[in-house]
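Re: export button greyed out
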Amino acid sequence: MHRFLSLFILLVGLFANAASHAADAPPSITTADDLGPVVEQPIEFPHNRHAGNRDPADAADPSVPAKGGMEINCMYCHTYARRSMVSGIPPLRKCIGCHQNLPSVRDTPRIQKLFEYWDAKKAIPWKKVHDLPDFVRFNHERHIQRFIFTQGKPVQEACGYCHGDIKTMTVARRQKALSMGWCVSCHEKDHPVDAAATKTTTHGPNDCWQCHK
Amino acid sequence: MSVSNMLENWSKFRHMHPVDDAPYTEYKWAMSIDLDACSGCNACSVACYAENNLAVVGKEKYNAGQEMHWMRIERYWDEDGREFPDQGAQFIPMMCQHCEAAPCETVCPVGATNHTADGLNSQVYNRCIGSRYCSANCPFKVRYFNWYDYPTTNNVWPDEMTQQLNPDVTVRGKGVMEKCTFCVQRLERAKNNARTEGRLVHDGEVQTACQQACPTSAISFGNLVEPESKVAKQWAHQQVELAAKDAQAKDEQEGGSDLRGYRIFEELRAYPSVMYLERVRESAI
Amino acid sequence: MIENSFDRRDFLKVLGWGGAAVTLSGCGFTSVQDGVETVVSYVEPPEYAIPGISVYFNSTCAQCDAGCNITGRLREGRVLKLEGNTSSTINYGKMCGLGQAGVQAHYNPDRVREPMLRGGEVLAWDKALGMINDKLSGVKGDEIAFLTGSVSGHVKVLLQNYLEALGTKNHYAYEAVAPSVVRAANKKAYGVEMPRLRLDKAKVVVSFGADFLGAWVSPVNFSQQYGKFRKAGDTGRGVLVQIESKMTLTGANADRWIAIRPGTEGILALGIIHALGAAGLSLPADVAAVSKAYDAARVTKDTGVSAEQIEKLAALLKERSPSLVIAGSAAEGYVHGSQNAAAINLLNSVLGNIGKTIEAPTNVPFPQVAVTTGNRSSVQALNDSMANGKVKVLFSYGANPVFTTPTALKFKENLSKVGFKVVFAHYLDETTQEADLVLPLDSALEDWGTSVPEYQGESAQLSIQQPLMEKLHANTRGVGDILLALLKQRRANEYKDYEDFYSYLRNAVVKNKSALGSAGEDDDTFWTGALSKGLVYFNGSKGSLSAKSSAAGIVLPAPAEEDAAYPLHLIPAVTANLRDGRHANLPWLQESPDPMTTIVWDSWVELHPKTAAKLGIVEGDIIEVTSRSGSIKAQAYLFPGIHPDAVSMPLGNGHVAMGRWAKDVGVNAFGILDQVVDKETGELAFNETRVKISKTGKRVIVVKDEGFIGGSQAGNKIAVRASTDEVELSGEV
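Workaround output, generated via the alternate export path:
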């Protein structure tokens, strides 16, 4: 039995070809509204059901299917975000951990598919939605630590700076340009350091080696 | 930095040198190498290959001067005409000296090499267009150019060899310049951990790959801003100043100094961040 | 909750190579892209594996016999880099280049991946092991031989048990460049083969050709000590004097490098004793009697070392105590090598260094795991047996005698007389190519094992080698697993409880936990702790030295006569990177310049500029080096650090097999050595070969790292040297 692991951090390091920018015409960084293309995933994962706001009409009884979301913290599944460069796609076991106790949705097509992967002990081949060029090293940990743990921002707001309002989506779709200019536009701004906003830093770091190395 | 940011604030970026009105506040990475302890064994160089995804180019390209060793050991002989080098050879590890007034930075047409807030001389691969002016202007000749696309060149990283590549370091493609980074990926990680804990990086918390490997512990590395760091103490004891104007004051004294610290090509006023300690030979034998 | 148990081995599993194909197709994009690459996450994550964060595991370096303790850095289940284990008292967290290249030995694309017959036909493991069983039937015990390198730990235990099961005592431990004559001389002089050498305590170190900073015994340990030795500290900066005919890396770091006529090291040692006596040091009567004849005039005439130099050296040794005198490879490689080494060791006893800078190692309480050191005479003995048709079945592991023995020995020819040859191999090297059956081995980073290093740190230790990652190739096996499978063919009952070598090893180590300093701990805690540390210390008693050094029996021949036909001494150089050539296929090592010549990817012949001028040779001339046993051609390199009567060639290159990075690189200097041995030990005297040199008329550009002006600083202050009277070292940080 093989156990798979997140490869994309490795992918970042492999075969980065930093030279081709000179040759091509400048690519359009993003669509007009900064919205990325719709990405088809092996399972249409409903972020809105997991992270979305609770519907007041929903009962507390988990055996009754809810209409609204469950307000699950982003970092419950993307658990590495506060500790590592990468936020991590949740391991299959995490999905199963809850869903084996949720008989109410057990027979829906998406969950059946989920259990097919689990029974075969195969990883789900999710497609990367926020795929930065190989020479860019975005660090989730730093941003999460900075905005959530130090400054005390709500999780969904902090994640939303780059990922948009995920709780309203099913599968994630890129909402922001994620271009360097876009990154720098935020790094240039002064941000409060702590929750009380007594102090400000000048801005985010702006030397190239912060992200390109 | 973005291009607009860079152009608007050019003078400010050019200011990241040890000038009185803009001293380093948190970090100034620096090194010292004791040539009396260095045995010239090349372990540092191999460690650098392992850490920084350096390409092995093979004999033919080596002959053409296309080797990629960011860290090399230079070996010199005495030039006093004796029959034998009876005081041994002179070994010196040579890598990017991370000059404060780096000659490479001023000639880069696209700002691909410039100074970081920590006093590192950075090289940004995705900005580099391969003019090689920087290499031409480097007094230490420690910049290496990718004449070939090594990731796709036969027998550079064939098959399983790619699995050894360090994911924290970009594998460079054809047409870009590269050089020693003081293992910036390790520095950034250490700084990141320190920031999360709300402190600065402790002395000894981060090691460069060459320093970590060095079998005789000849290499020290650390933060010059922190007066208690080993490197800062060494620099202070040797009276080597980062921003000495024309020459180190101690060398201006009559009769010279009996301290061993020196920087290479001090007279060029590049203000390197690497101090060497002279090799010593016993006079009684 | 979910039923889930995972152990450490599961953690090592990584995504197969197929996953990385995604990378190749997805490389090179320069702006953000969506929905192209795949993210593969764990099905079940090990708790301590966080993508993007390194994990470290301790193990033991298998690149040479020093047995440094290492720490492997892993990311996402792949080992990226080897670093020194900081809690080791062998290497103190440090690593040499050779050791670090261990990852390239692991990821090497030229590894053997399947059991193979001669000619390359692949077969299954059960067939291969069955074949061994078949071939052994009807063969008498003493017709079976097992050739290995130095071997220790539990692999050695299984090996010995297997030999016993086969009814044979024919274990030949062979190391081509081991200090085997010095070991014998040390045993005589100090009572132990390899005492601990305390450079860090010595004020003066006089080394007779021991390249302890480069390739001798335990270079990283010695380098660590050397770093301390060079610091002024309380006792003042240590002084290193190196005496040899060809400058080694250690010689290049000496305060005084003394070029000596090849083979006269013993004479100089006695000359120094004589000078010490003359300077007022009281000598034991027997020593005085022997050294009496070695007055300065005679010694100078014999060795070429000036009387003034000898006097200065004696004065320094007398004044600064304790000192340390080391007999090394350069001194032992002669017909009278044992005598040279004995004379040099005598100096230590005269100077009173025994017990001060020469210390007894800790006793290893389990002789069955203690190291069986390899030497050169063993391969000669095996060769004789094979030549006489006494070997029907030969096993070989960790040795490449077809490459490392002189052609004059005719090893390859004699090997063909052996009916069935099994080689346990990582690569298809020259010896493996001659095998009838090739068994592919796990790399050192995939295999379990233990080892007991010959040269100890502060205490005797059992070093643990454990897999740092999942096997790269499905059909390789650990050497312990193969031996266990072979043993099960003979003694099924005795080994039936051990599913694999790991279970055997765990059981064997845990069973003796009280002797390993952990009597009170429960088994799991002890074992997990041992794996986590990567080493355990024996509860061994400190050994003792017997200062038996006596002058009796030291008979040194007069310096060798001029040989008109073959006027030059050939000194084969053991380089830090390539040693005996077993790692010549690691590209980092090939591209790492030889420290002395800065040459890469080739062999060369070092000549003193004076000798070269006499012969009309310039750098890059292809010259033919001819001995009585053969000739090879290589590029000339003019090198000031060599005695004019000698030429030197590096060992290790010149492979005709072993994969893309080793094959056809340079020439093999082992081949032309004369089969001459040290009289006392029977060890090949590898500095005894005499050669002549002729030009071939061809010339090449020497591919080297130094610039076109060679080793000159052209008046620049780049690498600066000062003499001790010019600098103030006290108070340095």
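Chain A touches chain C through 59 residues (CB under 8 Å). The button fix ships in the next patch.
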